[in-house]
Write a structure and sequence with these properties.
The chain is an all-beta fold and 129 residues long. It is built from no helices and six strands. It has a three-stranded antiparallel sheet with strand order 1-2-5, with no helix packed on it. It has a three-stranded antiparallel sheet with strand order 4-3-6, with no helix packed on it. Strand 3 (74-81) and strand 4 (87-95) form a beta hairpin. The chain is flat. The two termini are 15 Å apart. 18% of the residues are buried.
């Protein structure tokens, strides 16, 4: 889960309902609390590649932090979409807050289970504090 979503930001989520036999419709309610934190999103990605296969879709490359040193976290998220723009699945990777500091770009790779669905595109995001 994402600790704080930036104002106007989007984050994938997963909801698991156990023991249900069938559902015709459902209600979903989201609650949020204001935060004094404003996660950074200005990370620079380069040398990106995607590697689908074996039931997983991996996205990797290099990430660089052009700003001040992070104190708490750096979260890299990959979201997979089908050809109708529906979320297939997502995966996140928490890196050390000192990861990708200053002129020291770091390599990363995040792999997502495709759930045996055809991936039309992916979205790559990063937040840090």
């Amino acid at each position: 889960s994402v600790p704080v979503i930036p104002p106007g930001g989007r984050a994938p989520f997963e909801l698991t309902v156990e023991g249900i036999q069938s559902a015709a419709n459902f209600d979903l309610r989201v609650e949020a609390e204001p935060s004094n934190e404003n996660p950074r999103q200005d990370f620079e990605f380069s040398d990106l590649y995607d590697n689908p296969g074996g039931g997983f879709y991996c996205v990797g490359g290099t990430i660089r932090n052009p700003g001040d040193r992070l104190q708490d976290y750096l979260l890299i998220v990959v979201v997979l979409y089908d050809n109708q723009e529906r979320v297939i699945y997502f995966s996140d990777y928490y890196a050390d807050p000192e990861y990708a500091t200053g002129d020291e770009p770091q390599d990363f790779e995040v792999c997502v289970d495709t759930l045996n669905q055809e991936v039309a595109r992916h979205e790559l995001q990063a937040w840090g504090q």
